[in-house]
Amino acid sequence: MELSIDLKGRTVLVAGRAAVADRAVRRYRAAGATVRALGSPCEDPAALLQGVHLVAAVDDGRPGWAALERACRAHGVLFAREEPARHRGTVTLVGGGPGAVGLLTLDAVEALREADTVLYDRLGPHETLPRLAPVAELIDVGKRPGHHPVGQRGIEELMVVHALAGKHVVRLKGGDPFVFGRGGEEIAACAAAGVPCRVVSGVTSAVSVPAAAGIPVTHRGVSRMFTVVSGHAPLTEEEHRHLAGLGGTVVVLMGVGTLPQLTAGLHWAGMRADMPVAVVERGYSASQRTTVGSLSTIVADAAAAGCESPAVLVVGEVVRTGLELQGEVARLAELDSALGAS
Ligand code: SAH
């Protein structure tokens, strides 16, 4: 059974040895309760219940707590049993989705709620973290393009150090941890340090950011595949040839800086100059923006609009489909004039 109680201003007695009850104490404090901690069973538990609304008993394996439970029953005080905090630290790699809180999974929310330490960067839903992870220490390890405040090795070290100190560490990542997220390296770092690690998949920006702009990455009769590529470094000639040859949607992450090489490469490899292209910036934020053009105009269009990272690029007929589905008449006319210019 799951209950949600407003504990603001209420008094909660947390019973259990400090080492196992500490986390519950912090959780109830974070919920706004006045917390009294009772580290060991006492002779006359009823005397302790004065003014107490809830007793949270954390099972520390010691006998003697039964009297407290009986006293609660006798005095009509709510009694809740809690699992003790696990001593062994863990790491959970959590995919935070593209930034919208609503696109966090239930598992992600639960992992955050239980976290002692959260390592986050700006791509996940970081603004609501204090609410989602009320008892956790929040550490910003954010990376901006070309600027790495805490390097990848530093992040792995922080993760491992906190876990070895017995903390439940959440490494919150934008999108999905395994899509250009360096999740594999972080798992390897945990394995090397003997720290148990699990992964909570997230909603990747590769699919959700186009969706936020109304663009389906596949559409019956238009595209039956999509390829997700990293634009961090320019693709090779061979890669451009394969992509152009597939005839499906191409989705590029981290691709704003290499857009000129991408469009030139795909064109060189035989893709039509009038293939629609969209640049979707800052998906799910108040400043989300979509710029559309064709393979031959998008570099100038994106420059004129001042397009910046983070953005997802979509190359393919599905861009037009998206505009049609949304009845974006003005945008379609814009696209057509871009195509005319191709
Ligand atoms: N693991 C992430 C991707 C990390 S790479 C995922 O699965 O989504 C970082 C790139 O993701 C950015 O450069 C950008 O291309 C894309 N991205 C992530 N969130 C985005 C957002 N809200 N809006 C636009 N692009 C986003």
TrEMBL record:
Pfam family, one: TP_methylase
EC number(s) reported in the record: 2.1.1.107
Keywords associated with the record: Methyltransferase, Porphyrin biosynthesis, S-adenosyl-L-methionine, Transferase
The keyword Metal-binding is assigned to this record: no
InterPro entries hit by this protein: 4pyrrol_Mease (IPR000878), 4pyrrol_Methylase_sf (IPR035996), 4pyrrole_Mease_sub1 (IPR014777), 4pyrrole_Mease_sub2 (IPR014776), CobA/CysG_C (IPR006366), Siro_Cobalamin_biosynth (IPR050161)
Keyword set includes Transit peptide: no
Top-tier EC class: transferase
Record GO terms (molecular function): uroporphyrin-III C-methyltransferase activity
GO biological process, one term: siroheme biosynthetic process
Top-level taxonomic group: Bacteria
Tetrapyrrole methylase domain residues: 90-298
PANTHER family, per the entry: S-ADENOSYL-L-METHIONINE-DEPENDENT UROPORPHYRINOGEN III METHYLTRANSFERASE, CHLOROPLASTIC (PTHR45790:SF3), SIROHEME SYNTHASE-RELATED (PTHR45790)
NCBIfam families per record: cobA_cysG_Cterm, PRK06136.1
Listed name of the protein: uroporphyrinogen-III C-methyltransferase
